[in-house]
Amino acid sequence: MAKFSELKIQQLKKELESRGLNTTGIKLEPQARLREAIELEAIDVEEYDFHLEGEETTKMAETVTQAVTSTDLNMILAAISAQTSTVASQLESQKTDITSKLASQLEEQKTYMSSQLEEEKTYLSSQMESQETRITSKMETQLKEQEARITVQLEAQEARISSKLEARMDEKIMQFEEKIEAEVDALRGRIQELQLHRPAVSASNPKVKTPSFDGSVPFQVFKLQFEKTAAVNNCNTEDKVAALFVALKGPAAEILQTIPEYERNSYEALMAAVERRYGSEHRKQIYQIELQNRYQKANETLQEFVSDIERLAHLANADAPVEYTERVKIQSFINGIRDVETERATYANPKQTFSETVFHALTQHTSSSCESRKARVGKTLAMTKQDGRFPIRVLNEFNSPIKLTKGAILGRCQEADVIINCEQLEEHVPTSNNDLSNDIMAWTEELEEDYQSKAKQLLLNYANIFDQNGFKPGRTKVVKHQIDTGDARPIRQAPRSVPLAKREVLSQIVQEMNDVTKKDS
User: Fold this and answer.
1) Do the domain assignments include residue 314?
2) Dihedral, CA of residue 42, residue 44, residue 45 and residue 50, to nearest 10
3) 95, 387, 447, 507: least buried by Cβ within 10 Å?
4) In this structure, are residues 408 and 374 in contact, taking their beta carbons and an 8 Å threshold?
């Protein structure tokens, strides 16, 4: 038996181990752990007596000694064996009790901790969900309030800015109007002063000679030269009238006789009379018609077509702004392109200037020409030869040769499953009807003798395509004709009427074109 203060370090560790506690550390730490464990068991540490294994061994030794002195060796051994078995059974029962106790304590502690953790988890989950709901609702409310405040502020700010801008604009407009009125008054005063105090013409300040006009030069050129000369000579209205009277020569001077006497002192009336006689205003409409009907010819390059479009556009819109002339040139150029792919690509990618449009069209035309230069293979039905080859028909539709490389794919071959025997018809079936003989004679009588026979034979070979019964030809579904208008819908409109004053000129131009066409044919 021993008190708490008498226990050694090994004895303290054994006591801690028997209670399932940590046994590490120096003597003070195990003493503190053992004291706490005994106090938890409601036992007074100082009064508690600890059973030591050494005491039992000492008692047993004393008993053995006494037995040796009193009995023989066999009795001593029996006593030792009995005592050993007693101690072993006690130790085993104590070990079993301690193990079961520790196991039950551990299980209880594990169950308790699991229940505590589950409750804590449930509580935290509910708390987080409620907190998330509160935060979400609070943020939505704050966002709506903030949005409403911002909207109100923006509307108020917009109203203030609008009012300020309107007031400022009104103020600026009033200032600008006042400034313009002041400048106009100043200009009027300056003009009156200049008219009253014109410098006198002297020999030291010679005048520029006024150009003469007899109708041989374009009127617009004469008008530009005359007005520039009048400005350099500082001429007033009376001086311009006098100079124009002197400048008109030859046939142009006859216009003065047609001007009424009350308009002879008016510079505008005199210039308007000359312009009516020699002006090119009536030619503008003709140039506009030519520009609208100008299309790229079959053998005409894009560069040649561009040059003609520019010429007609400048002649038809001589006095128009540059931006308007650019738009007219671009539109007329795109509408007149002969190649459909180039026209569509140019129309789909509009450019700002005429030069950019032309460059894009030339690039597109070059690329499409390079891509389309392929040999064409005619559809035919051919028999395969013994060596596995069969003939095909290849067409080069271009003026320059096309190089066919080895292994190039020209088309696709497909084996024919069924071949139906067909009768071969003659390409041209001459008619036996002689109703067209008179017409053919009339059509070919103006031709030369060398061409008359050829023309008659050609017309007779194709006589079946002419209407011989007096009925109008019907419709056919064998061949269909399509006009590609791109993205634009086709339209139909009546031709525009030409003014009476321009019909004579238009008739002369049409007659000239007819004469040229007859000569070419």
Assistant:
1) yes
2) -90
3) 387
4) no
> Helix 449-461 and helix 437-444: axis angle, to 10°?
150
For the chain, the average pLDDT equals 78
Q: What is the pLDDT of residue 100?
A: 87
CA-based R_g, the chain, Å: 61
pLDDT at position 150 is 92
Say if residue 376's pLDDT is above 70: yes
Task: Establish how many alpha carbons lie within 13 A of residue 465's alpha carbon, considering only the half-sphere containing its beta carbon.
Answer: 7
| DSSP label at residue 204 | T
Does 163 lie in the same domain as 239?
A: no
For the chain, what is the domain count? 3
Sort 83 into a burial class: Cβ within 10 Å, 0-12 / 13-18 / 19+: middle
How many alpha carbons fall within 13 Å on the CB side of residue 89? 6
Instruction: Give yes or no: residues 229 and 291 share one domain.
Output: no
CA 88, 89, 91, 92 torsion: positive or negative? positive
Average pLDDT over residues 193-198: 60
Q: Is the dihedral of CA 56, 58, 64, 66 positive or negative?
A: negative
List of residues 6+ apart from 486 with CB closer than 8 A = 343, 344, 347
DSSP code, position 248: B
pTM over 0.90: no
Q: Rounded CA gap, 341 and 427, in Å?
A: 34
Question: Is residue 411 included in any domain, yes or no?
Answer: no
The pLDDT of residue 436: 67
Give me the domain span that covers residue 346: 282-372
- DSSP element (H, E) containing 453: helix 449-461
The DSSP secondary structure of 205-227, one letter per residue, reads SPPPPPPPB-SSS-HHHHHHHHH
Phi, psi of 377 (to 5 degrees): -110, 130
Q: From 341, 372, 403, give the residue that closes a domain.
A: 372
Strand partners, 2: 50
- Tell me: do 184 and 62 sit in the same domain: yes
pLDDT in tens, 299-308: 888 889 999 9
Q: Are residues 245 and 173 in the same domain?
A: no
- What does the H/E/C string look like for 414-437? CCCCCCCCCCCCCCCCCCCCCCCH
Instruction: Round to whole Å and give the CA distance between 276 and 257.
Output: 14
Residue 519 is assigned to a structural domain of this protein: no
Instruction: Please report which confidence band the pLDDT of residue 287 belongs to, taking 50, 70 and 90 as the band edges.
Output: confident
Q: How far is CA 446 from the centre of its chain?
A: 63
Tell me the pLDDT tens digit for each residue of 11-20.
778 878 887 8
